[in-house]
Amino acid sequence: MGYTKTVWQNNITPIDETNMNNIENGIEDIEMQNTNNAILLTSLQEQLATLKTQEINNANLLNTLQAQVNSMQATTSTIANLVGVS
Amino acid sequence: MNKIYWDDFDYLVEETTLNSIENDIKANDDDSFSTQNQIVQIQTQITSMLNIISNQQALIKALTNTLTSLKATLNNVLTHYRGMAMVTFMDDDCSQALLTGAYPIYEAKEIKASLACPIDLVDVDGYLSLAKILELKNEGYDPLNHIKGDYALSPTNTPALVSRCKQFIQDSCIVTPGTITEDIIVYPFGNIDPNPTQVANIAGEYIKYALDVGGTTNLYNNFDDLEIARLYLCQATGMGTFMEDEIKKGTGYVNKWVDHYNSTGKWIGGDMEWVYDDSNPKGWTVIFNHSWMLDADKYGDKIFVPQKLSEVVDFVKTLNCKIVTITQGLLIKYGIE
User: Fold this and answer.
1) What is the ipTM of this complex?
2) How far is CA A38 from the centre of its chain?
C-alpha cells in the first residue's frame, strides 16, 4: 500500500516511460481505491445503522421479555398459593 | 489538489512542477489510506455490534425458554383449579372513592379485587392517579382497562378508543405487555349502542376479553360467552336477598328438599335447603360495586354500603370457592397461550 514518489531533480531524473507511468499508475490506483472505498464505506455505514437498529430492537424485546418473565413468575406464584399448589 | 494546467511554454517539465504532481498523488494516497482506516474502524464497530447482538439473541432465547417454562408451570398449576367455583370482587368505575369505600374492606378481609379503572380519566380530579393505580397493582390488585367518559362505544369510535386506552395502559405499565391483562377491557355502554354486536366485533379486533359490566349483555370472549354471573352489590342486594342464592348457585350449591329424621330414624319433616355437592356445576361469579355511589337522594337503593360488602365477603369466604381477580380467573379458565 502506498504510492512511491519519484523525487525529481533537474537534469538528473529522466522524464522517461518508467517515471511518467509511475505517475499515471499512481493516479489510476488512487481513483480506483477512492471509488472502492466510497462504495465500501457507504455499505458498511448502512450495515452499522441496521445493526444499531437491531440492537435497539433487541434491547426493547429483552426489556419486554424480562417484564413478562417477572410478571409470569409473580402470577404463577400467586395462583399456586391461591389454589394451594406448591 | 494543485492541478497544473499544462500549456506550451507556461510550465517547464522540470523539478518543481513534477514534484508538485508527486506530492499531490502522495497526499491523495494518504487520504485514501485514512478512509481505509475509517473503514477498519467501522468494521471493528460492526464486529463489536455483532457480538452484542449475538449475546442479546442468546438472552432472548434464554428468556423465551424461561417464559415458555413458566407458562407450562402456570398452566399446570391452573389445571388444579380448572372447573371449580370462582368469585371475583370488582370495584367498577374505580375512582378515589375506592380508597375510602371498598379498599379498606378488601384489605381488612385480605382479599384482592379487580379495579375497573377509567383509563381516560387517570390523573383527573376525583379519579385515581397513575401512581396510585401502579401502587395498587403492586399490592396485588388487578387494574383493568375501563372505557368510561360520557360516550358510548359505537362502531365509529371503538377502534380509536379501544386501541388508545390499550396503548395507554401498556405505555404507563398498568399492565405488562404480552400478559392476559392487556387483552381485557371493561366497557359499560357497548350494549346501549344500536349495534352492540358490531361494537363487540370491532372491539374484539383489539382485545380478547370484554366485560360488559353495566348492561344486560354478558361477557364476551370474541363473542363466546364467558359464562360469568354478574351481580351488583348495593343497598338493595347482598346477604338475605336473591344475591345470596345466586352466589350459592355459582359455587356448587343446589336448593333441594331435605328430609329430616329424629334419633330413632323417624321422619319428622323436611325443608328446602341449600346443599353443596361437588358434582354440581360451578361457575364464576363477579360481584361488583360502585364505591363512588353514595348519594342516596340521587341513586336510591343502588348506593354503595360498606357493611354489605363486608358481609358478602365474609359469606363467600365460607363457601367452597376461590376468590380471584378477573385476570386470575381468566388464567384459570383459559390458561395462557
Assistant:
1) 0.78
2) 13
